[in-house]
Design brief:
disordered C terminus; alpha/beta; disordered N terminus; 5-stranded antiparallel beta sheet; 20 strands; single chain; 28% helix; globular; 8-stranded parallel barrel
């Protein structure tokens, strides 16, 4: 989330992080992810079956070995090669099935480990397959909670307005909010800490903070709202330091990569995922979270998901490992929960040299997921205007917004590019369907006029509503944020004094029987029928890149 103004932050944090970590050569664009080196054995699947894991192996040619055996290893995510535990041994063959205990909720749990095949050559174990994860953790789930899918219209709420009916009056169907591991982790010595026994250890969570989240989430649910929670790692918590990746420690940034580099961080992260998945399953009286987003704009390395490494492959690789853990642990508690990644609108152009292009990040993320076992991940995308303070959602600068896969930015004007991209065969989920796409953060400024904000809000929502693959349109935010306004980002539907802006009425009417009123007003401002503009995919652009006429 843009809790502070991203326009300035993108530049400042890049400088701060480089100074904090020492000189770092930026060469991320030169790094390419490494393809599998022709390994002859393939793990076709690893699935939970009862209390066991069943893996199907295949080989076009059987690799030579000392004893004619396949050895299946279970590695923790931070281990590489034949270094974990041997969980199965089978005669080598072109088609082999192996089974071994899941050991769920024990010190030897295989739920979030990765598996590989090795053979013995010259007395040494040699890896002969890529890694593969369990891809059906929902088979374990005690709960399959009915999702609250009631509409795409969402918002980042102002909690001071949440208890007096204003969200309901606005016709909101979804809310998005932040939760940081710093806030929720605790220790046995802290009064009111909540113990959680998992995988043979006891972990502790902050009772006061968890209680506040319980109350807030229950309230949202009682209003009929679907809840999306963004899981962050701000690096501030006394009891969550082991969750900061070693390559991120010592930096000075608002967001850090999660630690999947050692046993302490990895085991703690598993417990966090399991605890949150269980507690907010909607079955324990604590409220229901249907959607979790792992991190915020993780391609923006020096702003929101920091490591000192400038390698795209390294950064995506460790993010995928953290994502796998959260995915498997949460879905093992609630089968219907959805887990999303998060990237920004900088598709083919970086505003900050410390970031990665969102297209490159998405491609690399998808590559690793497919290589190591396809799962039903969702995409959280932030199609802000470019620049962020540009007030015209329907008429962006031609230099930045193009109707082409090579477009520097993807905004609501050319969101079809992203949607079509996600229709590619290699991006489909395991059922062969287009993945859930959540526009979990998008906002329009009123700094240059309230009319522009009115029309932009209408255009953005109606464009999203016209695309069946989009499951959420989360307006950022309900009330202006003073620090953001210094960068001309007056994104709220309310001003700082609590007054409703004209865009409030527009958003209130959208998605209701009064939507025609909103459409008429937006069409008047735009100078064209908004239904025609959207249905015919008419894309206006203008010269210049300053964002203001």
């Amino acid at each position: 989330m843009r809790n502070i103004r991203k326009m300035i932050l993108a530049v400042l944090t890049a400088a701060v992080c480089v100074l904090a970590m020492g000189s770092t050569k930026i060469m991320g664009d030169e790094m390419a992810y490494v393809e599998a080196a022709g390994r002859p054995v393939k793990i076709d699947s690893c699935l939970i079956s009862g209390t066991n894991v069943v893996c199907q192996l295949s080989a076009g040619s059987i690799p030579s070995s000392d004893d004619g055996k396949f050895y299946v290893y279970a590695d923790e995510v931070y281990q590489d090669g034949a270094t974990g535990n041997v969980v199965a041994i089978a005669d080598a063959g072109t088609s082999v099935s192996v089974s071994f205990p899941l050991n769920y909720n024990t010190a030897d749990s295989n739920l979030s480990r990765k598996f590989l095949v090795a053979v013995k050559q010259g007395g040494q174990m040699v890896q002969v397959s890529d890694e593969h994860y369990i891809t059906n953790p929902e088979a374990l789930a005690a709960y399959t909670s009915a999702r609250k899918d009631n509409g795409i219209k969402g918002i980042l709420p102002d909690l001071t307005k949440a208890s007096n009916g204003e969200l309901q009056a606005l016709g909101i169907k979804q809310v998005v909010y932040n939760m940081a591991v710093d806030e929720i982790c605790s220790a046995a010595s802290v009064p009111g800490a909540i113990p959680f026994d998992y995988n043979g250890k006891t972990y502790y969570f902050n009772g006061d903070m968890i209680g506040k989240f319980d109350s807030m989430i229950r309230s949202f649910n009682s209003y009929g709202l679907q809840v999306t929670m963004v899981l962050l790692n701000r690096g501030d918590g006394l009891y969550s330091q082991d969750l900061i990746h070693p390559m991120a420690r010592g930096g000075s940034c608002p967001g850090y990569a999660l630690n999947v580099d050692d046993a302490a961080g990895t085991e703690h992260l598993k417990a966090v995922g399991a605890f949150l998945g269980q507690r907010y399953s909607g079955q324990l009286g604590c409220g229901q979270v249907d959607n979790w987003i792992v991190g915020n704009e993780v391609n923006a390395r020096t702003s929101w998901w920091y490591t000192e490494s400038t390698s795209l492959d390294f950064n995506v690789n460790i993010y995928v490992k953290a994502f796998r853990i959260i995915y498997n642990e949460m879905k093992s508690m609630n089968a219907n929960v959805r887990i999303y990644n998060s990237i920004d609108q900088e598709w083919n152009r970086k505003s900050n040299p410390g970031s990665f292009l969102s297209k490159d990040y998405l491609d690399t993320f998808n590559y690793y997921i497919n290589r190591e076992g396809n799962i039903d991940w969702g995409l959280s995308f932030h199609p802000y205007n470019s620049p962020l303070y540009d007030p015209y959602a329907w008429n962006g600068p031609a230099v930045w917004v193009k109707n082409s896969i090579t477009s520097p930015y993807i905004t609501m004007q050319n969101i079809d590019i992203l949607i079509n991209y996600m229709h590619q065969g290699n991006f489909l989920n395991p059922a062969g369907e287009v993945r859930s796409i959540s526009l979990a953060e998008i906002g329009y400024t009123s700094s240059f006029g309230t009319k522009e904000q009115e029309a932009s809000v209408a255009y953005g929502y109606l464009k999203a509503a016209s695309i069946p693959d989009i499951d959420a349109f989360m307006l950022f935010r309900q009330t202006d944020e003073a620090s953001e306004m210094e960068s001309n980002l007056a994104l709220g539907l309310y001003d700082l004094n609590g007054n409703k802006k004209p865009a409030y009425e527009i958003y209130k009417n959208l998605g209701t029987a009064n939507e025609g009123i909103a459409k008429a007003r937006a069409s008047e401002i735009i100078g064209m029928d908004i239904d025609q503009m959207i249905s015919q995919n008419i894309m206006w652009t203008r010269g210049g890149d300053d964002g203001v006429r």
